[in-house]
From TrEMBL:
GO terms for biological process: response to oxidative stress. It comes from Fodinibius sediminis. Transmembrane segments: none annotated. One of its GO terms (molecular function) is peroxidase activity. This is Osmotically inducible protein OsmC.
Length: 141
């Protein structure tokens, strides 16, 4: 498997500085600042990118598990709510809530929930974030 790369540049002090994060693939490059991370400023932040990565990874893992079991998903729409707060004197990611809606013909809800839980536990990003409380709200359409 290939190694993926991303990079970030930061200029100045924390409060007044600014930076750019980018993917070496060229698929994304965007600004980030203290305000975009700790307030409601313009730009992105590391937590938002972690949320996007987690939502994408979970959706792919769920698609794989369903397909391998003979269920062909028509669509899987996932978002991730990343909780970022001050804990023990410093900022920390304290939780991630995955919210997914999937259109999967010919599957009952209990079976779907089992696959969704398995995808949450098994996706590589969930494994990388194992020290974080990850919850799941899965809806079968």
């Amino acid at each position: 498997m290939p190694t993926t790369k991303a990079s970030a540049i930061w200029n100045g002090d924390l409060k007044n500085g600014n930076g750019t994060m980018k993917m070496d693939s060229g698929s994304y490059e965007g600004p980030y600042t203290f305000a975009s991370r700790f307030e409601d400023g313009e730009g992105t932040n590391p937590e938002e990118l972690i949320g996007a990565a987690h939502a994408g990874c979970f959706s792919m893992a769920l698609s794989l598990e369903l397909s391998e079991a003979g269920y062909e998903p028509e669509s899987i729409d996932t978002s991730a709510e990343v909780t970022f707060e001050v804990v023990d004197g410093g900022p920390a990611i304290t939780g991630i809530k995955l919210i997914t809606e999937a259109n999967v013909p010919d599957i009952d809800n209990d079976t779907f929930q089992q696959f969704a839980e398995g995808a949450k536990e098994g996706c590589p990003v969930s494994k990388a974030l194992a020290g974080t409380d990850i919850t799941l709200d899965a809806t079968l359409l």
